[in-house]
Automatic annotation (TrEMBL):
Ranges for domain Circularly permuted ATP-grasp type: 73-448
Family matches, as Pfam families: CP_ATPgrasp_2 (PF14403)
Domain of life: Bacteria
Protein known as: Circularly permuted ATP-grasp type 2 domain-containing protein
Length: 472
């Protein structure tokens, strides 16, 4: 699937403004460039004041910077969102059933739909979770599903984020910023609200408390202030009105978890953890971890506490498992997928590897455990030397990689230094699974600010936009 044309979110192939953008396009055409520049500067100043930053790793480790915010929104009509929401609910439901299955009866493996070694030998598969029953049989309580639009406008799922998906705080803050900068715009559009997300999140977390707990205590567990997403951890705890804790603030006794308070120990029933599996319990995983709670796994296995997202759920968002999600939907739900995957070559297969090696300059090659835009090759943007260096790595460890066609990601008008210009975008809606599967209308739209770039990740210089879903 090599797609040549870029789908423009605001205008069609003939340059006509799409109906759902009409009112906004008229407003934008009358807005002086100087005024837009002033508003962008105002937004930057406010984000600095509020401390809405993103910690940088790598060459500039230890520094923090703003995630660039674009003041031109991405707009989605109501009927389009209805289809997306149905597809997202379907996908996350099947993924939850898959995780429960692989830690119990393993029916999908026995039926031959997924090679058992792909799951059981996966680095994210936790044998300690075999046979462990979790509250409401839910494993991926918070899912961030990355969607891209290509070709004639069809949406594709690029990846599923089921471990500790981040970005929802920026979705919420982007909306607050747009309403502050351009309050009159919201009187011309019926934009579906997103501000109820913290309430939805708290209600979902309370709904998955251990059996018999009627008034659960919920906490947000953070690795600490040096984590790249610490702002989000603190923000969500504050918005929900719950404690933000680190591993050192908690201890385990009699298969229950307690946090230390000035009034003495207080039992914790639900932990919304933003700490990876490897670091969550030094007695069960990495013994050198200073971020976790000794004994937490045992309390979790005994049903004394709920951990969200579940330990061991990461196997389902591994890129080597991604190609099988459509089959999961058919197997568990008896339905055809509403949202499609991007066609994917699995380099562990000899015939797929041969194809990828012959077409490296055309493909995007990704590490199956990679994230944040690292560990990947974007063939069309790579030099010959980069391609040849990557070829050697791929030949040495083909099982570590998948490859996909270079999608012509849709673009959206974006206010950059040179003025208004098209830039490529994706969308990360957030799906909550508790008593029911819910999501607020919208998500985090990420934008590749560099001209021609297809990499939207914040760690790679990407920015964000407010996402407007119009009400019917």
């Amino acid at each position: 699937m090599t797609i040549k044309n870029f789908y423009n979110e605001m205008t069609d192939e003939a340059g006509r403004v799409r109906p759902h953008y009409a009112s906004y396009a008229n407003w934008l055409s009358e807005m002086p460039t100087e005024r837009l520049s002033q508003k962008r500067a105002e937004a930057d100043a406010l984000f600095h004041r509020y401390g809405i930053t993103f910690a940088v790793y790598g060459e500039n480790a230890g520094t923090e910077r703003l995630i660039p915010f674009d003041i031109i929104p991405r707009i989605i009509p109501a009927e389009e969102w209805t289809i997306l929401a149905a597809g997202l609910r379907q996908r996350v439901k099947a993924l939850n059933m898959f995780i429960g299955d692989i830690y119990h009866d393993q029916n999908i493996l026995k039926a031959g739909h997924i090679p058992p070694e792909q799951v059981l030998n996966n680095a994210q598969y936790r044998k300690v979770m075999q046979g462990v029953d979790v509250a409401r049989d839910i494993y991926a309580h918070i899912a961030g599903v990355d969607l891209v639009r290509a070709g004639a406008g069809e949406y594709y799922v690029l990846e599923d984020n089921l471990r500790v998906p981040s970005g929802v705080s920026y979705m919420l803050e982007n909306r607050k910023m747009m309403m502050r900068l351009f309050p009159r715009l919201f009187s011309h559009y019926k934009v579906a609200p997103v501000d109820r997300y913290p309430d939805m999140l708290l209600n979902m977390l309370r709904s998955v408390a251990p059996t018999g707990v009627t008034d659960p205590t919920v906490v947000v567990m953070t690795p600490g202030a040096y984590n790249s997403a610490y702002f989000e951890h603190a923000f969500l705890a504050q918005q929900m009105g719950v404690e933000l804790v680190e591993g050192q603030d908690m201890f385990v006794k009699d298969d229950h978890v307690f946090m230390r308070t000035t009034q003495g120990p207080q039992r914790v029933d639900v932990i919304y953890r933003r700490v990876d599996d490897d670091f969550i319990d030094p007695t069960a995983f990495r013994p050198d971890s200073v971020l976790g709670v000794p004994g937490l796994l045992g309390a979790y296995q005994a049903g004394g506490v709920t951990v969200t997202n579940a330990i061991g759920g990461g196997v389902a968002d591994d890129k080597s498992i991604y190609p099988y999600v459509p089959e999961m939907i058919r197997f568990y739900l008896g339905e055809e997928p509403i949202l499609h995957n991007v066609p994917t070559s699995m380099c562990r297969k000899k015939e797929d590897l041969a194809y990828v090696l012959d077409h490296l300059s055309e493909l995007v090659v990704k590490e199956v455990h990679g994230s944040g835009g690292y560990g990947m090759l974007v063939g069309p943007a790579a030099s010959k030397d980069e391609i040849e260096a990557f070829r050697k790595v791929l030949v040495a460890h083909p099982e570590r990689y998948i490859a996909q066609p270079t999608l012509a990601l849709s673009n959206c008008p974006t206010f950059v230094e040179s003025g208004i210009a098209p830039r490529h975008i994706d969308l990360r809606p957030f799906v909550l699974s508790g008593e029911e599967i819910q999501l607020v209308p919208g998500g985090l739209t990420r934008v590749a600010l560099r001209e021609g770039s297809l990499v939207v990740n914040s760690s790679q210089g990407g920015g964000t936009k407010d996402t407007w879903v119009l009400e019917a």
